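Handout, page 2. Input:
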Amino acid sequence: MMTVVIVMAIAAALAVPMFSNTASTKLQGAASMLAADLAFAQIESISHSDDLRMLVFDNTNDTYHIAATTDPATPITNPLTKRPYLIDYDTSAAGSLTGVTINTYDLNGDDQLIFGIYGQLDQPTAATITLECETLTVTITTDPNTGESTIGAIN
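Output:
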């Protein structure tokens, strides 16, 4: 009986930190997903220099999608899922990230982040996108010259 109690105490000690950091874990996952999507859009722009790629943010629905500049309203097809490349943290492939929202973004005055033929941004200043989960936030910053994205600390 004592062995069972000790094993359960150890299991509880290991499980408690996993549950207490849920918001932080979700935020880190969402930030990693956004950084990967930014890198994908950048590579797609370099590959499709005749029809550049962009991320389009929708504050009303708290979503973003990757689109071609010739048709910004229509998401491109995700090559893995064969579905529209639309990210909603509450549904679809990002469903395990419920509670994460797009808090703010600074994309030089609009809701679109376009990559150029060399992977650079369409704006002279860094683009920032801040995600939020519960009371925590994290900011993803994209360099205007290189198009490289970095994930800041979770606050």
